[in-house]
């Protein structure tokens, strides 16, 4: 899939990203991407550690109250992060469309004057 990707392709892709999101939003996008990757790595490590320590025990762990702890898959938080990132991307797209509409309206007003 990425075998034919050369330096020029990367430059063009970065330029398109810059045009879509704008320079002021790129640090925020990179920060949120880094945080998402950090959370994903943390969850993978926790999942691997629980797999290593929990081999052979199929029973849920009981808390001090004696009730069984609910089994929550590690993917839930990763899926939440993905959903959150998609929602942020959709919000950014909507904001971009609104700004384009405002810019077009201002240009139309200038043309009428």
Automatic annotation (TrEMBL):
Spans through the membrane: 6-23
Q: Where is the composition biased (Basic and acidic residues)?
A: 81-100
Q: Which family does it belong to?
A: Belongs to the TatA/E family.
Ranges for region Disordered: 43-113
- Listed NCBIfam families: tatAE
Determine if Calcium is one of this entry's keywords: no
Which Gene3D superfamilies is this protein grouped with? Answer: 1.20.5.3310
Q: What is this protein called?
A: Sec-independent protein translocase protein TatA
Task: State the annotated membrane topology for this chain.
Answer: Single-pass membrane protein
**Which species is this UniProt entry from?**
Leucobacter ruminantium
> InterPro entries, alphabetically?
TatA/B/E (IPR003369), TatA/E (IPR006312)
**Per its UniProt record, what Pfam families does this chain match?**
TatA_B_E (PF02416)
């Amino acid at each position: 899939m990425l075998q034919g990707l050369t330096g020029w392709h990367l430059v063009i892709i970065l330029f398109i990203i810059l045009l879509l999101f704008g320079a002021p939003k790129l640090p925020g996008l990179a920060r949120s991407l880094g945080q998402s990757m950090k959370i994903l790595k943390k969850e993978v490590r926790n999942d691997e550690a629980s797999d290593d320590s929990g081999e052979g025990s199929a029973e849920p762990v009981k808390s001090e109250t004696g009730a069984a702890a609910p089994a929550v898959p590690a993917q839930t938080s990763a899926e939440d992060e993905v959903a959150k990132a998609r929602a942020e991307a959709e919000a950014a797209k909507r904001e971009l469309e609104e700004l384009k509409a405002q810019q077009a309206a201002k240009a139309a007003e200038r043309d009428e004057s």
